[in-house]
Amino acid sequence: MKRSRINDIMAAADDMIRQYGFVLPPFAYWTPDTFKARAQDAAHVIDARCGWDITDYGRGRFDDMGLFLFTLRNGLLSDLQGGGGMCYAEKLLISRQDQLSPMHTHIIKAEDIINRGGATLVVKLYGSDDQGGFAEDRGGVVMCDGIARPYAPGEKLRLAPGESVTLRPGDWHAFWGEGGDVLIGEVSTVNDDETDNVFQAPLGRFAQIEEDTDPTHLLVSDYPVWLS
Of 47, 99, 143, 174, which has fewest CB within 10 angstroms of its CB? Predict the structure, then answer.
């Protein structure tokens, strides 16, 4: 993805987030130079990979297959493994109309996916085989706003604003906006996007960046290079 496109997506996402009464934390608006100057203060933000995240899954077709994310807070895997401390994470996501977030599951993370506003969020579900792999012929059971809901293989949940689904490891899922763009909340156990996303098809989790202009703000995937 071109850096200029990423900058534009950030600006549009911030506008949409504010439309629904949310405001991102102060570090969201730091310039790259400010981030470098305050890297020591922001050690947890960097280590936990909080911040801006825009992906086309390495396919170069963001409008068709992509996702905007901002990690608001996140614990460390060591907390989760130790059974105490900051064992949770929170994100805001934007799924554009008909923009696919492709079929995947998580090894560790359980997550609530919440329609915070906008159009309908469609979540397509499959279960796992005995080894945890994608199973085209298996369904399962999820919780929708605390109510158990069985799902058939390939069933599509349609979540209106305010509705949510709880997904556990082994619940294979893809999602997109139907009828318009959707602001999504995600509340989960500790989030590790580098190792805990398992895609049905071979995909990259992060975009490859073409530096055609300076970044407005850093992506979480920029931290190792820009803040080293």
Answer: 47
In the CATH hierarchy, which fold is given to the domain comprising 3-226? Jelly Rolls (2.60.120)
pLDDT of residue 204: 80
Distances (CA, A) of 18 to 25, 156, 208: 12, 29, 28
What is the pLDDT of the chain when averaged over all its residues?
A: 96
Cβ-in-10-Å burial (0-12, 13-18, 19+) of 137 comes to exposed
Report yes or no: 179 and 95 within 8 Å, Cβ to Cβ. Answer: no
- Would the CA dihedral through 133, 114, 9, 38 be positive or negative? negative
Q: Cα angle at 178 between 173 and 182, to 5 degrees?
A: 80
CA distances from 8 to 165, 199, 202 (A): 30, 27, 28
Residue 195: its pLDDT value, please?
87
Global pTM value: 0.95
For residue 133, the surrounding DSSP H or E stretch is none
> What number is the average pLDDT over the span 87-99?
98
